[in-house]
User: Which sequence fits this backbone?
């Protein structure tokens, strides 16, 4: 299972990095989102992979590590704020420069 | 105190000329004379001690940790230099009063001059070597200002820059040398360094120290191959040339040779480096001077030659040679300063410095001519003048050398040859300018004598030349003895300052030089023709092109890394991150740890494959943006499922709701952005990116495997044990968020609110083109608000809100909480905006989301502060079980209030972001950029 998880993380990271290296803002945002998925999953896995033991007292005999979960929860929400901010920057660039190139190069 | 005062008087006095210039030029010059005059008086008060052979040291601690003290030292050498600096300084100020034209800003000139004087005095009077370095650099800077005084002239600017680059660069080398010296000796105080000569010479770093210090010396004193800056510094006003480039600044280098003599001299390396450099400079300078048609050019090369002579004397490394060197420093300062002043007068009165045009001035200015002729004779080494005495001593010393073995005859030969040229160019200075027919095409005609007081400084200096030359024993002997003994650091051997030593070899050399010089000058026209045929080495051109090449190279190197392409920066950063973290991963002996892996089940396998497939599809179709977006949402859904699969229900819920909001956001922005991505990257670039991405994936996979298969210790036990008893909740994740790590959460919701406001600010005033059609050219559907969606969304709203309340309330004990509830509420409200339009919703739901987000942060913060009232630390939570009729026992925790703050912030910030984006598309016709 751990190996499968690691491979999935690797694929997500590769896809994210490749898209981040593109020249247009929208693919970059997509790549950033993919990368943040990978990062969140990675951080989450630092508490190890547990099956059927959520950290809710009284529900199971053993519990998964709640600390990485709490950290990742806020990370997901902050990640949304970051994505939104980057997107609005991209829109602003589109409005000011009439181009969605990351270097602000005009299309015409 | 006195010593510091001598240095700081001119430094503070810089203000005097600036303040007095408005009251007239003479007053300005008088005020400027005050600091050096007082300085001379103070120096005279101390002269008794100095002539008794005492070394005065005055120290104030400054930065003791790095060995820098404000300590000053006055001994014979420093006294002699301080006398020159202030004495000639006074004369130069008087001279400049008449030299500067009315249009030149005089206050500025004198301020620079005093600044330079302070720096120079600091160099010669510093006891601490670091302090001396400070003043050393100050001389470079102030001379830059003085050379570039006529800043409207390109020559002046370029000359100033060249001088600064060369002497400043040498200063850096010297600094390194001084730091090494301090390292070897353990102190930067000169007394300690001078006493540690044996230690320094025996140290393995001695050659390095010597070369670094000599670099500083040679650049400052214009020694070959650094001599080229001095002729270009002649673009300075002539008083500056007379002061800096004959009497003082260029002497700073040879001063340092004298100062460091006891510490660094007396080795073969010193002998060869210093004497050979001196010899080349001596000969080259004397030779080139003859061919300069520019009056100041001739004097500049002559100065280079004389500096070479002094350097050579120090290099000869005998005590008598050092005496001769010190003597020549004094003599050269007097005759060269007066010659520069005379050249300035001639330039002033004729308007040119070209010796091919200035002829026969004897008829027009006999007074000046007499003065200049005496000074030039001193320069040539004619008997009965001061130059003769030191030159004789020099000739004598060259004959004593055996260091070169069978080639020892080279030194006297070079000396005589240089003497021949020196006589020849001095003769040229006299004959070309004052005789040799009539003036030719002068800008100012007829020339006449300068103002009376302009000649006074020249007269004083020429009188000194004569006095020293005629009666050395009564004039200079005392000063020479005390400064020379301070130089060599001990008693002096016997020497005689007599004019007549009998018929001996040095006298013969002098005679050869005089006769040879006359002969060379007689055959000058043939020599000029031959010199014209030599290839021209334009130092300025070479220097400028070297500087430009350097700038170009630096620019290209910068461009290599920084070409304003964000793509490239990102790639560099990724590669750097990969290398640094990959390096440590490779250090692991084994990637896989000891902990056994858990078995894979079918459902998880399928889920993982779907996730990977969706991610790859996102990349594959990233040019068709809408499809890529759909694929991305699939990835997000599977990530949520992964959280659920691995025992994290809270995360799954959060991810799911965030996913919805994110996709809505992306769709909204996609409306304004181009629908398709053009193919831009070259195939090579794509391969590069694939390689980088591939390695990034490998790295993350490797890291994950390495961590997940190794044993692990967690602090989770604490949270699990205290969640119920301390935080009053069974959902440990939520208790951590609102209680244990409440401070973090408070920070995070604040960031969320700030992001919302920042996005509002960015969107405010933004105007975007609204596209008329979709990517395939089809017009938008006419029905903006489909009936089914409108009706369904209105039914769903209360249900969704109820669920969010439920999720919020149960969050403390079961999966849920403020974050998730807030996102669900936001989604439910956004659906209304979607279905019924921004306007319709805004009319019915009048809430300013700024206030909502702000209120959330305030509630969360106040809850935290509340605990302070009860004497607990910030954000301590409390809880109580309350019995409510019919409902039963209900737990009320203060953490719930905190979670309410979180809830409100999430709702506020999310809607702030989304509705503002949505508003962009409202209120304007399609295709119109309003």
Assistant:
């Amino acid at each position: 299972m751990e190996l499968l998880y690691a491979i999935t993380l690797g694929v997500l990271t590769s896809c994210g990095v490749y898209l981040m290296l593109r020249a247009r803002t929208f693919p970059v945002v997509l790549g950033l989102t993919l990368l943040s998925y990978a990062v969140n999953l990675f951080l989450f896995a630092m508490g190890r992979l547990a099956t059927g033991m959520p950290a809710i007292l009284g529900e199971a005999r053993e519990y998964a590590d709640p600390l990485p979960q709490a950290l990742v929860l806020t990370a997901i929400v902050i990640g949304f704020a970051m994505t939104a901010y980057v997107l609005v920057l991209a829109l602003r660039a589109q409005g000011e420069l009439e181009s969605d190139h990351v270097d602000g190069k005009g299309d015409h | 105190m006195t010593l510091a005062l001598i240095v700081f008087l001119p430094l503070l006095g810089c203000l005097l000329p600036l303040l007095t210039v408005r009251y007239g030029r003479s007053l300005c010059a008088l005020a400027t004379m005050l600091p050096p005059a007082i300085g001379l008086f103070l120096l005279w008060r101390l002269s008794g001690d100095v002539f008794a052979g005492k070394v005065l040291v005055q120290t104030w601690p400054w930065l003791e940790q790095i060995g820098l003290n404000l300590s000053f030292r006055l001994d014979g050498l420093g006294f002699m230099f301080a006398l020159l600096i202030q004495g000639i300084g006074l004369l130069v100020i008087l001279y400049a009063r008449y030299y500067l034209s009315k249009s030149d800003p005089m206050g500025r000139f004198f301020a620079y001059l005093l600044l330079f004087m302070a720096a120079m005095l600091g160099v010669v009077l510093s006891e601490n070597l670091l302090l001396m370095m400070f003043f050393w650099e100050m001389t470079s800077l102030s001379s830059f200002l003085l050379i570039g005084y006529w800043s409207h002239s390109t020559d002046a600017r370029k000359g100033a820059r060249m001088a600064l680059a060369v002497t400043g660069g040498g200063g850096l080398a010297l600094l390194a040398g001084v730091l090494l010296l301090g390292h070897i000796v353990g102190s930067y105080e000169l007394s300690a360094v001078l006493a540690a000569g044996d230690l320094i010479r025996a140290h393995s770093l001695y050659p390095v120290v010597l070369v670094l210090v000599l670099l500083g010396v040679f650049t400052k004193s214009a020694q070959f191959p650094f001599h080229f800056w001095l002729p270009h510094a002649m673009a300075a006003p002539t008083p500056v040339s007379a002061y800096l480039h004959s009497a003082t600044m260029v002497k700073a280098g040879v001063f340092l040779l004298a100062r460091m003599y006891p510490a660094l001299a007396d080795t073969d390396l010193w002998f060869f480096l210093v004497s050979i450099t001196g010899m080349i400079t001596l000969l080259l300078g004397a030779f080139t001077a003859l061919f300069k048609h520019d009056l100041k050019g001739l004097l500049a090369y002559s100065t280079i030659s004389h500096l070479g002579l002094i350097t050579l004397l120090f290099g000869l490394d005998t005590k008598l040679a050092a005496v001769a060197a010190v003597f020549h420093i004094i003599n050269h300062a007097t005759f060269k300063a007066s010659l520069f002043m005379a050249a300035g007068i001639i330039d002033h009165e004729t308007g040119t410095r070209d010796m091919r045009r200035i002829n026969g001035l004897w008829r027009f200015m006999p007074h000046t001519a007499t003065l200049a002729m005496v000074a030039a004779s001193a320069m040539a080494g004619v008997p009965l003048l001061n130059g003769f005495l030191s030159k004789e001593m020099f000739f004598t010393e060259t004959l004593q050398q055996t260091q070169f073995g069978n080639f020892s005859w080279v030194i006297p030969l070079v000396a005589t040859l240089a003497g021949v040229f020196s006589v020849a160019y001095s003769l040229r200075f006299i004959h070309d300018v004052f005789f040799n027919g009539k003036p030719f095409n002068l800008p100012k005609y007829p020339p006449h004598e300068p103002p009376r007081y302009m000649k006074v400084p020249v007269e004083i200096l020429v009188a000194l030349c004569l006095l020293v030359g005629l009666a050395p024993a009564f004039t200079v002997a005392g000063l020479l003895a005390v400064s020379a003994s301070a130089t060599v650091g001990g008693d002096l051997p016997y020497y005689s300052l007599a004019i007549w030593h009998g018929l001996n070899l040095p006298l013969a050399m002098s005679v050869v030089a005089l006769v040879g010089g006359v002969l060379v000058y007689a055959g000058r026209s043939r020599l000029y023709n031959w010199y014209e045929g030599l290839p021209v080495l334009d130092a300025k051109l070479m220097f400028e092109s070297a500087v430009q090449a350097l700038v170009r190279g630096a620019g290209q190197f910068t461009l290599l890394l920084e070409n304003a392409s964000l793509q490239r920066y990102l790639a560099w950063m990724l590669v750097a991150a990969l290398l640094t973290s990959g390096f440590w991963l490779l250090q692991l002996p084994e990637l896989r740890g000891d902990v056994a892996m858990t078995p894979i089940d079918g459902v998880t396998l399928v889920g993982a494959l779907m996730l990977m497939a969706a991610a790859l599809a996102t990349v594959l179709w990233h040019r068709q943006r809408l499809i890529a977006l759909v694929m991305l949402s699939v990835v997000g859904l599977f990530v949520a499922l992964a959280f659920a699969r691995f025992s994290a229900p809270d995360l799954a819920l959060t991810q799911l709701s965030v996913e919805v909001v994110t996709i809505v956001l992306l769709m909204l922005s996609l409306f304004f952005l181009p629908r398709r991505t053009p193919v831009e990257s070259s195939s090579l670039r794509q391969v590069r990116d694939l390689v980088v991405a591939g390695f990034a994936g490998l790295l993350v996979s490797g890291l994950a495997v390495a961590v997940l298969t190794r044993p692990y210790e967690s602090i989770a036990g604490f949270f699990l044990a205290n969640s119920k008893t301390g935080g009053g909740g069974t959902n440990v994740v939520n208790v951590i968020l609102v209680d244990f790590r409440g401070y973090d959460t408070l920070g995070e919701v604040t960031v969320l609110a700030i992001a919302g406001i920042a996005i509002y600010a960015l969107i405010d005033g933004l105007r975007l083109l609204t596209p008329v059609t979709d990517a395939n050219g089809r017009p938008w559907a006419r029905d903006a608000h489909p009936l089914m969606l409108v009706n369904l969304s209105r039914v769903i709203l209360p249900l969704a809100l109820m669920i969010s309340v439920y999720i919020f309330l149960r969050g403390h004990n079961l999966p849920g909480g403020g974050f998730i509830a807030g996102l669900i509420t936001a989604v439910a409200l956004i659906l209304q905006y979607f279905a019924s339009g921004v306007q319709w919703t805004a009319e019915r739901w009048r809430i300013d989301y700024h206030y909502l987000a702000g209120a959330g942060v305030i509630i969360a913060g106040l809850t935290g502060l509340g605990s302070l009232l009860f004497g607990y630390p910030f954000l301590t939570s409390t809880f109580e079980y309350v019995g409510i009729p019919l409902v039963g026992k209900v737990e009320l925790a203060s953490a719930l209030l905190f979670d309410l703050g979180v809830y409100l912030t999430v709702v506020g910030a999310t809607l702030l972001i989304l509705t503002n984006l949505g508003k962009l598309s409202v209120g304007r016709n399609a295709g119109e950029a309003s």
Notes: The first strand of chain B starts at residue 56 and ends at 63.
